[in-house]
Specification:
Strand order of the largest sheet: 8-7-9-10-21-20-18-19
Helix content: 25-40%
GO molecular function, one term: RNA binding
Strand content: 25-35%
GO cellular component, one term: mitochondrial intermembrane space
CATH topology of the largest domain: Ribosomal Protein S5, domain 2
CATH class of the largest domain: Alpha Beta
Protein name: Polyribonucleotide nucleotidyltransferase 1, mitochondrial
Number of strands: 29
Radius of gyration: 35 Å
Shape: elongated
Largest sheet: 8 strands, antiparallel
Number of helices: 18
Structural class: alpha+beta
Enzyme class: transferase
CATH architecture of the largest domain: 2-Layer Sandwich
Family: Belongs to the polyribonucleotide nucleotidyltransferase family.
Length: about 775
């Protein structure tokens, strides 16, 4: 009894607690703010959904709503880096669709989801505090999509709000907007329809004090001054979003958690490493005879010797502390060399390019090929043409969200492990490869003619890598396209600009001093503060991607980076033009061919054949691809001119039908049954014609279910009447039924001899019309 009473009291307390929770966490606890972005209103809210998460927020624009949750573990991860995972998934239900796979569930992850996840990651990662090694997951959930407003920018803002409203240590918030340009006018968060007419697709994420943390852009070769203006306009509007999220955080009185351990290198160990190894590290970084491999080997030799001495001096030190002490001093020496002595480890000036060499037409069987070498970064690019049927077809969810149904230009970036002298897994595409390939594709796509008759695939395989392989892929891809004879409107080049900076001691989020580096090495990217990739033509910019590792960049520095990258881009184009200055006037002799074949409606069924038999036979025997453009026109794609010649001969044989031209409307002919089917019989009027279906309904006045009911057999000859061809599908119209009436008395026969040479004047009688 005592146990039952105790259990009853427990249930009572639980009931009271649950009731209290439901009242406290109801809609009355929801916070909502509206940000005025000109003609658009951005709504940010929290407190209604996913309240168990550390942070949750919903951002709405129009009728598109995106919810993002942020959860971070309270125990450090064993890996000594920021273990951040961003998952952006396109929900079919949010777009009012059902997935097309056999399970009707969301399966796998699409390229667009991966690219959007990377976009969000790059925007929020720089603002996590140094040494925060706690597993953190940001999940983006599309609640509703109206097909007008793109959810990717909303997801960035919702991720910012979720982190800012949580207790997770994060030096945000940030705001993000998309900027479009139509007829020189800047549009903030343009609709999907407006983006179809826009020459710019710029996403910019900004932190407090007009700091830029991320830029992602593709453009129709717009001028540098227009691009810079768009960045400034975008940053101005991101400030409004930042202020709104800060206000929400103040209203909710957010208190950030204090991590159990934020790792910091012991100062005494760092000082000991400075005394032991700084001069030797400096000697390696100022020895300009080193290349990537020999420099790494020399530094590793100093590392091993220093770490052994450290372990003897500090026997109780953690292994990671020993390693990080050396890394701290090595990074310090490397950066000070650039900041104070204006020296780079390969001897170049800060704005100098590495040695560049270009070569085209490497392999004759390829439709187009090029090798682009910049320092120790080497990329081999090849171009392949195929039919328009081979274009990429977007899944229904991506189509519903972005409106893109297919694309006939693609660039695939491959980074095998041997490119960096490593052993690794081959096959498949990781997120990095997908992101780098998408950037190079953005750089080249505006130059591809809209009406090009082929699907184009560019493969960029990195043979050697020592920094900026994605921009080398854009350069090599441009050369390969010109070698293939693709009439691109202008050559495209790309370059990466790096940054070495020092923070203001009084305001750590502000930069006190900095140096911009043109055409960065791999080590300059790894130990630097920014990877600013810019691509374009001599006229303007086609793509830009800025990855920032510090809490933000002032606008002045961004403008300088664009200017410095533009100067380098033009210098690279001058070198590329020495290899090939213009696209080839014609494609290679062994390249693919496309021709249109006009088939009259009356001949269409004969050309296609029963069940498409003739088309399948053509494609199987010659390797061509045939697609119907309209009622009378078929497009024939052949991989080689020889295949086209072979296909043309077969098409001529199929369409050769002199005898049918001499058939008389309303005449009666002797037909031979060649096949019995459930729905009728297949007959021929002369030996070399395609078989024609004579339906059960045209065999007899009586209703029959099978031709055997009339005693018909294969090889039997029957009398049929010819009524020309159907004007809609081109099928020959024959009837045996009408001959059962007394009116049909005259018969025309076609012997095998007559099928070779038939003259209407030799006919003995004329058919009678019904």
């Amino acid at each position: 009894m005592r146990y039952l009473l105790s259990l009853g009291h427990s249930f009572a307390r639980l009931h009271v607690r649950l009731c209290h929770q439901s009242v406290y966490s109801g809609n009355a606890n929801t916070r909502r703010l509206v940000v005025d972005l000109g003609e658009k209103k951005l709504e940010i809210s929290s407190g209604r959904f996913a309240r168990f998460a550390d942070g949750s927020a919903v951002v709405k624009l129009g009728e598109t709503s995106v919810m993002v949750t942020a959860v971070s573990k309270t125990k450090p991860s064993p890996s000594q880096f920021m273990p951040l995972v961003v998952d952006y998934r396109q929900k079919a239900a949010a777009a009012g669709r059902i997935p097309t796979n056999h399970l009707r569930r969301e399966l796998g992850i699409t390229d667009n989801e991966i690219l959007t996840s990377r976009l969000i990651d790059r925007a929020i990662r720089p603002l996590f505090p140094a040494g925060y090694f706690y597993d953190t997951q940001v999940v983006c959930n599309l609640l509703a999509v109206d097909g007008v407003n793109d959810p990717d920018v909303l997801a960035i803002n919702a991720a910012s709000a979720a982190l800012a409203l949580s207790d997770i240590p994060w030096n945000g918030p940030i705001g993000a907007v998309r900027v479009g340009m139509i007829d020189g006018e800047m549009l903030i968060n343009p609709t999907r329809k407006e983006m179809n007419s826009s020459t710019l697709n710029l996403i910019v994420a900004g932190a407090p004090s007009s700091q830029v943390v991320m830029i992602e852009a593709s453009a129709e070769n717009i001028l540098q001054q227009d691009f810079c203006h768009a960045v400034k306009v975008g940053v101005k509007h991101t400030n409004q979003i930042v202020l709104a999220i800060q206000q929400l955080a103040r209203e909710q009185k957010v208190t950030k958690r204090t991590p159990v351990k934020i790792f910091s290198v012991p100062a005494v160990m760092v000082e000991h490493v400075r005394q032991l190894a700084s001069k030797r590290i400096y000697a390696v970084f100022t020895d300009y005879s080193h290349d990537k491999i020999s420099r790494d080997e020399a530094i590793n030799k100093v590392r091993l010797e220093t770490e052994m001495e450290l372990k003897e001096k500090f026997p109780e030190a953690d292994v990671f502390e020993v390693m990080e002490s050396f890394n701290t001093v090595s990074k310090e020496v490397f950066r000070n060399l650039i900041l104070h002595e204006y020296k780079r480890c390969d001897g170049r000036e800060l704005t100098a390019l590495r040695d560049i060499s270009c070569e085209v037409d490497l392999f004759k069987p390829l439709h187009g090929s090029a090798l682009f070498q910049r320092g120790q970064t080497q990329v081999l690019c090849s171009v392949t043409f195929d039919s328009l049927e081979s274009s990429i077809k977007a899944d229904i969810i991506t189509t519903a969200l972005s409106g893109i149904k297919s694309k006939n230009f693609m660039l695939h970036y491959e980074f095998p492990p041997y490119a960096t002298n490593e052993v690794g897994r081959m096959g498949g595409t990781n997120r990095r490869e997908l992101g780098h390939g998408a950037l190079a594709e953005k750089a080249l796509r505006p130059m591809i003619p809209k009406d090009f008759p082929f699907t184009i695939r560019v493969t960029a395989e990195v043979m050697e890598s020592n920094g900026s392989s994605s921009m080398a892929s854009a350069c090599g891809g441009s050369l390969a396209l010109m070698d293939a004879g693709v009439p691109i409107s202008s050559a495209v080049a790309g370059v990466a600009v790096g940054l070495i900076s020092t923070a203001n001691p009084e305001k750590p989020t502000e930069i006190q001093d900095y140096r911009l580096l043109t055409d960065i090495l791999g080590i300059e990217d790894y130990l630097g503060d920014m990877d600013f990739k810019l691509a374009g033509t001599n006229k303007g910019i086609t793509a830009l991607q800025a990855d920032v590792k510090i809490p933000g960049l002032p606008l002045k520095l961004v403008m300088e980076a664009i200017q410095q990258g533009t100067v380098a881009k033009r210098e690279i184009l001058g070198i590329m033009n020495k290899s090939i200055a213009m696209p080839r006037e014609s494609r290679k002799e062994n390249g693919p061919v496309v021709e249109n074949v006009r088939v009259p409606v009356s001949k269409r069924a004969h050309f296609v054949g029963p069940g498409g038999y003739n088309l399948r036979r053509l494609q199987a025997q010659t390797g061509v691809t045939i697609s119907q453009l309209d009622e009378e026109t078929f497009s024939v794609f052949a991989p080689t001119p020889g295949a086209m010649n072979e296909a043309q001969d077969l098409i001529c044989d199929i369409c050769k039908d002199d005898q049918e031209q001499q058939l008389e409307f309303g005449a009666i002919y002797t037909a031979t049954i060649i096949e019995i089917r459930d729905i009728g019989v297949m007959v021929k009027l002369y030996p070399n014609m395609s078989a024609v279906l004579l339906h059960n309904s045209q065999l007899d006045h009586k209703r029959i279910r099978h031709p055997s009911a009339l005693g018909l057999e294969v090889g039997q000859q029957i009398q049929v009447k010819y009524f020309g061809r159907d004007p809609t599908d081109g099928r020959m119209r024959l009837s045996r039924k009408v001959l059962q009436s007394p009116a049909a008395t005259v018969v025309k026969t076609l012997s095998e001899k007559q099928s070779i040479s038939m003259n209407p004047s030799n006919s003995q009688t004329t058919g009678t019309d019904v």
